[in-house]
Design a protein that fits this description.
Two copies of one chain form a homodimer. With 112 residues, chain A is of the alpha+beta class. Helix content of chain A is 56%, strand content 21%. Chain A is built from five helices and four strands, in the order ββαααββαα. Chain A has a two-stranded antiparallel ribbon. A two-stranded antiparallel sheet of chain A has the order 3-4. In chain A, a hairpin with a 5-residue loop joins strand 3 and strand 4. The model of chain A has no long low-confidence stretch (mean pLDDT 95). Strand 1 of chain A pairs antiparallel with strand 1 of chain B. Chain A binds a DNA duplex (30 and 30 nucleotides) through helix 2, helix 3, strand 3 and strand 4.
Chain lengths: 112, 112
DNA sequence: TAGCGTTATGTATTTACAAATATAACGAAA
DNA sequence: TTTCGTTATATTTGTAAATACATAACGCTA
């Protein structure tokens, strides 16, 4: 059995967490579901938890990441801004690059 | 205020955590203190917490990482094996490389 | 203006994890 | 055989985080 290396990356802004893997997953769910409550349900987390995450994301980001509308046709909904879509794309890219980088590095351990 | 990227890496063996930053810090303290109880105290964590961490490390590793002796002159003590010393060296090296790698990658976010 | 499905927010409860406490076992040395 | 400072382990207590529950607000539509 060989050693495996795992990693967790996240982006901070002004000492507050902006994006992590969980937040990115939630943003993706919002994009496909069109609403925060449905996104939360699809991921099995409470609406409140999801809301506080998105609230934190939007407060930390330089520009709005989602646009949440309350009331109106269908009761409202949530959608990603273009900036939000770009953020999750770049995050995924960095994360993927990190994994492949670490998979190379971990070989140093096998030689011991 | 620019975005910062943070990371946490850890090594797993057979789906159990072998090494993380906290465990490495504890191993270093054992090396300098010569005992598990003193190492725990120097890091401000309980002896039980420290012991269970080291127990987990030794159970996950391919070879022993520390040698713990009970009783005898001075009551006993704990020290790192050569293998343990090599592990923390390589871990620190990989971690450092990961940070510099991510610092380059994060620049992609600033352009958005 | 009543109804609907959202977003938004507060409060209480439960759960999980960390911390504290207690005690046994160990083995050399005096 | 008593003392000492460890390692080893169980049990209790405390604290913080997650979860659940409850309710207000919103704005379009019929």
């Amino acid at each position: 059995m060989s050693y495996k290396i795992k990693s967790r990356i996240w982006i901070e802004s002004d000492n507050h967490v902006l994006l992590g893997e969980g937040r990115v997953q939630l943003l993706k769910a919002i994009e496909t579901e069109g609403s925060l409550s449905k996104a939360a349900k699809s991921l099995g987390l409470s609406y409140k938890k999801a809301w506080s995450l998105i609230d934190s994301v939007n407060k930390s980001a330089k520009k709005p990441v989602t646009i949440n509308s309350t009331g109106g046709k269908g009761g409202g909904g949530a959608e990603l801004t273009d900036y939000g879509k770009q953020l999750i794309t770049v995050f995924d890219e960095i994360n993927q690059n990190c994994w492949t980088f670490l998979d190379e590095q971990v070989q140093k351990l096998e030689l011991l």
